[in-house]
Specification:
Elements lengths: L4 E2 L4 H12 L7 E7 L2 E17 L5 E7 L5 E2 L13 E6 L3 E9 L3 E12 L14 E6 L5 E3 L3 E4 L3 E5 L2 E12 L9 E4 L14 E2 L20 E7 L2 E16 L2 E6 L5 E7 L3 E8 L2 E9 L4 E11 L4 E4 L4 E5 L3 E4 L3 E6 L2 E11 L11 E3 L1 H37 L5
Parallel strand pairs: 11-14, 25-28
Antiparallel strand pairs: 1-4, 2-3, 3-4, 3-13, 5-6, 6-7, 7-8, 8-9, 8-10, 11-13, 12-13, 14-15, 16-17, 17-18, 17-27, 19-20, 20-21, 21-22, 22-23, 22-24, 25-27, 26-27
Length: about 400
């Protein structure tokens, strides 16, 4: 789980930071399924960040941000319901934490009646110095999650649900209860945040892996501008990155290329001992980079994901790019292509990143990529060849001149 703590003295700054990061959820969605025998009745695919305010000593308050991990599971208390019991999805994660969605329906629609969150405050790894050890359960009946029957509720944008001392931010969300089949319905009810304000949207639209292509530039973009991004933990920089990014997305046999603009991009993320995340949001585009640190103190880029409000999603958690050593930075000035999937890749320019062991907010000693080393080697080889050629010409000239002098005789 990704954690972010703030103390009493930095409470207001911490809450502001939590709100900021809440808009920058990791785009890796986790999938859950509730069955009755062999029949699926509830399916959910979502990512969630949960910010929690809790009491510590001397009546002070701390705030922690918990990201729903991909290790979360469906609890046995989940049910498809019956004539007297409503359908319920309960998701368990971490040390005794849970998130639940309670559904209801009428003749035409279904909705999430109640969102409940239970948190084990005795989990000292999450709730550091908590003065309360008893579980805390809060709920809200104002979720805004509602869809037509036999359609999937879809909301790629960040949506917030406020509970007492708890805020839940969902993104990349697809949910459907009262399923007519074993998978999401082909039709979707799209949330207002995903609908363009420039054109009226129909009530339902077909669901595909990528429903709407990202906005395509009228002309091919120039090379992108480099931006500097950082992630902080306990008021110190824990991840530092400088990079110029260009995204390549193939949709319906058409490739769209567009740049990430550092002037309009906001950054967030989280750091743990062996993992860190950088999240960039440029307009409707969410881009997530996940880094891992292995037992040999080598870091690498293990995952990349992208999501747009139009519905395009792609991710890969099995990458091994940008390898470096703990305490040092990885640097590559040359253009390199990071292939994520067959329909999504990133062209990276002027890249320098250090996801672990940042000291005093500055990059450590740079370990250059092979492309930069090759680019430096070529001029050296060419220069040496030219110098050799000049030397050969000079030697030939001197030999020729000596022979011409030998042809003359003194009278």
């Amino acid at each position: 789980m990704a954690l972010l703590h703030s103390n009493k003295q930095l409470l207001f700054a911490g809450v502001a930071l939590i709100s900021f990061i809440g808009c920058l959820n990791p785009v890796f969605a986790v999938t859950f399924e509730v069955k009755n025998g062999n029949n699926t009745c509830i399916m959910a695919e979502l990512s969630a960040n949960i910010s929690v305010k809790y009491a510590v000593a001397n009546k002070q308050m701390n705030t922690v941000l918990v990201a729903l991990p991909d290790s979360a599971t469906v609890d046995n208390s989940s049910t498809c319901g019956n004539d007297t019991v409503a359908p319920l999805l309960v998701v368990r994660f971490g040390d005794g934490h849970s998130l639940s969605l309670n559904f209801s329906r009428n003749a035409s629609d279904y909705q999430v009646d109640t969102l409940s969150v239970t948190l084990n405050l005795s989990d000292s790894a999450v709730f550091v110095n908590s003065s309360t050890k008893a579980p805390m359960t809060v709920s809200s009946s104002s979720t805004g999650i509602k869809a037509s029957l036999n359609t999937t509720y879809r909301c790629m944008s960040a949506t917030h649900v406020t509970l007492t001392d708890v805020n839940v931010t969902f993104s990349n969300m697809r949910v459907e209860a009262y399923l007519p089949a074993a998978n999401f319905s082909k039709e979707a009810t799209v949330c207002n945040a995903d609908i363009s304000t420039s054109t009226p949207a129909p009530k339902t639209t077909p669901v595909t892996t990528a429903t709407t292509a990202p906005p395509a530039p009228t002309t091919a973009p120039t090379n992108p501008t480099a931006g500097i991004y950082n992630v902080t933990k306990s008021n110190e920089t824990c991840l530092l990155a400088k990079m110029a990014l260009q995204l390549n997305i193939t949709y319906q046999n058409k490739t769209t290329v567009f740049n990430i603009n550092p002037l309009t991009t906001v950054a967030g993320g989280a750091c743990d001992t062996n993992s860190s995340t950088l999240i960039l949001r440029d307009g409707s585009t969410n881009l997530t980079f996940m880094f891992m640190l292995n037992d040999t103190k080598k870091f690498y880029l293990s995952g990349i994901a992208v999501a747009t409000s139009g519905g395009f999603i792609a991710d890969n958690k099995n990458l091994t790019y940008l390898r470096g050593t703990l305490g040092r930075s990885y640097m590559c000035s040359a253009e390199q292509t990071l292939t994520v999937t067959s329909v999504f890749s990133i062209n990276a320019f002027h890249l320098q990143v250090q996801p672990f062991g940042v000291s005093s907010g500055k990059f450590g000693t740079a370990e250059e990529c092979q492309l930069d080393e090759d680019n430096m080697l070529i001029p050296i080889i060419v220069g040496a060849a030219l110098a050799g050629l000049v030397l050969i010409v000079l030697i030939a000239y001197l030999i020729g001149r000596k022979r011409s002098h030998a042809g003359y005789q003194t009278i």
